[in-house]
Predict the 3D structure of the following.
Amino acid sequence: MASPLSRAVDTAAAVASRHQHLRVEVDAGLSDRDWGTWAGHPETELVERFGRLDDAPGIEDAETFRHRTVGAIERLAERAEHRAVLAVAHDAVNGAILASLIAELATAPRIEQHTGCWNHLLNDDHRWSAEVVNALPGDGRRP
């Protein structure tokens, strides 16, 4: 499953190409947060101007964003029926999902997600845990 943005689809396709049984599906629920007319402006500029990113007019509400992204992962988990799945998204999407599903990360001010990182989550009867967070290729961490 991938965000509809081309870099996520391309990454998912590269992984799928190495596994005959994988196919890439796109889910708009994994799209990055919608900044509306503020797209392209740095977050620091908006925080300086409005006090908080969430107070900038036209930006997708944080709760709506969280609900959308977590919903996409939960739908994917339901369809997977205890099989491993891959979701390719963006740092803000990953952070929202991790903060929402993993109790130990819920109060973290920011969950670091480096470009190209991966996370390994387990879902045991709707109880989520994170086995690996923010791993990078070649760092020796394995699922």
